[in-house]
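Note to self: user wants both folds in one dump. Writing first protein now.
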Amino acid sequence: FIALTNSRAFRRLGNYPEPTRLPRISVLVPARNEAKNIQACVESLLNQNYPDFEVVVLDDESTDDTWERLKRLRKKDNRLKIIKGKSLPEGWIGKHWACHQLSQKARGELYLFTDADTRHHPSTLQDAVAAFEAENADFMTALPREEAETFGEKLTIPIMSFGIISFLPVGIAHRSHSPLLSLTVGQFMMIRADTYEEIGGHESVKQDVLDDVSLGRRVKAHRLNWRIVDACNHINCRMYNNIQEVSDGFSKNLFATFGNSVFIYIPVWLWLTAVFIFPVFVIGLAVAGGNVSETCLLLALVTIGFSLILWSITHLRFRYPLYLTLLYPVMVFLWVVMAMRSMVLSLAGQTFWKGRNLDLDTDLIEDIDDEEAEVRDRTV
């Protein structure tokens, strides 16, 4: 049901009326060890057909030649502003500190935080502003086309899109101010400058591993308008190059997505296992001549049928190979393994990313709920 309603509620960039005004946009790009991606990203941003924007890129203490590449790009196009990031202070997570520094240099009415491994269609800013205006948004996130080239990537990356399509009721999430009814994608976050200041910016989430999710939840906690759109025709991103990178990347934050709560996390993954993996074992047992009741067999067949429909919707909409639909039990199993790895590493304090240890805030959901209550009290 959610997947069907999302086919209308989860609108694509490019399907909105032309905007009536074109506010200045500050495009803000944190970059750490992004030498292989930074040129394609920056050139795609500078090639926008939008009339009023700035591109600001901060080199976050890279150990590769990201900074040298940025300097060469700056010589070719003086519209690009580049910043050498300051040393990471105590109490901050690296990317959050980089984004905070970028916000201090921004001069736009709207801020767009985007990752250095993204590539943007020339009409991305124009169509994003059209959506932002039509949706009366204070904060808008967008789901890019997540590229998957190796077989390992194809078995893991699509589940991100599947999760949004199948489990986030976008229409309800847009109308609700509940922080838990949101899912923010850090690859694209457009926010009003005054909204960014009102919610406390990245400084307010400086120790939360999921800065994107936390910012989106803070927007809702302040009873402001949070929106999500489909940008798969406008933005491309290859997050990881193989299944090991996928595992490392999601192990750093998957547990944090559930507020670092074992009591929420374990039941969710047990439920996913029961829905998407266990029915396949039931069918296999029946085929092998095992003692399976007709009721169990029927339930398994119906569950598998609905699962195939859900995964087909995801793969068709986001242009993944349709044959992957038949492999969904393997895909879910791989994510269960990554989920358990994320929990173990997080509880052991061993989550690392780009050479930095990530200090987890284990009270993320509770902190957001407390702030929502405070905002509600002030409103009353």
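First done. Writing the second protein, which came from a different request thread.
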Amino acid sequence: MSGLAIFTGVEVMFYWLGVLSLACVQGLVWLRWKLQSSWISLVVLAAGMGTMLFAAAWAISSILEKEPQSASMSMMVIMLPGLVLATLGGRLAWK
């Protein structure tokens, strides 16, 4: 048995959500410093990324609670608007 067996799915999920959140924030800072993106585009992009992170957390926790229908609905209802927001914000930021 390995030493990682003490971690359940919830701890691993929160670890990777933290890593992804840090990567999103670093990406926003890079866009602001290197490309001089407008604040409104960064706000739209941050809202989209935050919504997608929330949808992923919802789906993973639903799977861990053995509720696959809730997981699939969260991916459709929460993830798709987040994807649209992130795409719109990314297009505005790269202009």
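Dump finished. Worth passing along: The mean pLDDT is 89.
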